[in-house]
Amino acid sequence: TTIKVTASPSASRAQVVMSLKPKSVTALPDGAFVFDMGQNMVGWAKLKVTGAAGTTVRLRFAEILNPDGSIYRENLRNADATDIYTLRGGTAEEFAPLFTFHGFRYVEVRGYPGKPTLDALEGEVVSSLRGDGTGTLSTSSDLVNRMWAIGLWGQRGNFVTVPTDCPQRDERLGWMGDAGVFWRTGTYNFDIAAFSEKWINDVTDAQSPEGAFTNVSPNMLISDRGIGAPGWGDAGVIVPYTTWLQYGDKRVIEEHWDAMQRWMNFILKANPDYLRKNAVGPNFADWLAPDPGTPKDLISTAYWALIAQQMVEMAHAMRKEEDAQRYSQLFENIRTAYRKAYINDAAEVAGGTQTAYVLTLYVKLASPEQEPTLVANLVKKIQARDGHLSTGFLGTPFLLFALADQGRADVAYQLLLNETYPSWGYMLSKGATTWWERWNGDTGDPAMNSYNHYAFGSVVAWVYRRVVGIDTAPSAPGFREIVFRPLLDDRITHARGEYDSSYGKITSEWNGTKSGPFTLKITVPPNTTAQVFLPNIPNTHIYQDGKPTLTRIEADASEVRVGSGTYEFTLK
User: Fold this and answer.
1) Using CB atoms within 10 A of its CB, is residue 370 exposed (0-12), middle (13-18) or buried (19+)?
2) Global confidence as pTM
3) How far is residue 540's CA from residue 519's CA, in Å, rounded to a whole number?
4) Where is 482: in which H helix or E strand?
5) What is the pLDDT of residues 16-73, one digit of tens each?
6) Is 250 exposed, middle or buried (0-12, 13-18, 19+ CB in 10 A)?
7) Longest dimension (CA), the chain
8) Residue 466 per-residue DSSP state
9) How many CB atoms lie within 10 A of CB 361?
10) Bridge pairing between strands 470-472 and 162-163
11) Nearest-angstrom CA–CA distance, 117 and 12
12) DSSP 8-state assignment for residue 239
């Protein structure tokens, strides 16, 4: 059968991109053999076998093991995740499936003739992503390095034609909320410009005649009436905006501007008082937050304000100044309604959760005078949980930014480096090789326990942008103007990162502490400029390539502007 693919085939075509050898094989008392691939991967196991004709070998796939060493499959729900091969006999044979893929680390093999060796299986990794990626990270923290590494595997395994939420169970859908919160991280990890354009076409194709974006794209959930939940449907704006911001190509926002405007009109028509309570679909709120107490309408309204801000920026980029003014006024109307409904005179936010404070701060919904109190309240909420986060899918991407951009990078680093529940480090402490769907994936509901779910990996964007310090100026997207602004904390004394931008490779490498000394080496590619923000360390002077240099001093940093080239800045 010949299948003709007409829409962007090279952008999303899945193929075998690498192979893995098993790390071990264990014989179980019941006669089964369990292979450990050493990595939660997506693809299949190529079987290599020799035996008598009619011999049947069964392969079953799983992400984790039971305590007795057998495979755990309750989290697969109705997925069979099973391959069965019958030998023709007489010679060495190989088998790999043609019409399915699996998400797994472990393979249970039954019926194999004789005792299989490690060479009996080969893991073939399938993805739409090619190569080693466009971003690299290395720091003095082994924890952060491993966070970056497992995020690559999670993205590689879920970007298979569409950005699936998870690869292993009976779902594998293009969930919009997962994509929206992760996309900025994803654009650093790999070159997904073409993949993004292809999937944004899917998003627009699924849009309803009334203007509603959906929860999954392509839309396979007809039962939800096609109305995307806040944060999920909003990805119809967030993903094009992020793609434009990272790659600097206006085509993606020009081609989908009408679709984004229809979504904005759909929300406004249902919520003329600027509080987003209506037409919210199956409102998922701050999905899987340890503290679920954030009011749903607060989250919905904050996300409406967020995408209104993004519409303003995109309209300016396309020189649609009337649209920019309209969305700027929309944002002001939402902010006025939000303050009245959710922020009291004592700068306390309704619900009192970390997510409520994070969204209020990140989206700039409070008055500047209230922000110091809001930050203090957010820190108190974190301290009340023994220095741990309590955010879910929609609050987590902005948590560390809300803290660090308000002068509390120390608390942001504390959350980043935690290794007890709930935290990113907790997953790693339990042996995770890809991000989990839930902070408590080791103890939570089996039906909702995906062990390869990239959404909480959104934190790595903060590592790229604030730890290593490679960012793009929104006024010159696509890294035409680069912003180097590493934030220091004595728990990390070295960081190095590379990003292969549209203009060429950007590098940032620093060594130092908050009290000095401090050295920053950067590479700025041709046809770009850079803003370099160096930390204000008492009793130090700034040297550029060994010579004293003048800077513009801000409250927490000193700025130097440079053109393309390689530079070394030292604080002595």
Assistant:
1) buried
2) 0.96
3) 12
4) strand 481-484
5) 999 999 999 999 999 999 999 999 999 999 999 999 999 999 999 999 999 999 999 9
6) middle
7) 82
8) I
9) 24
10) unpaired
11) 35
12) H
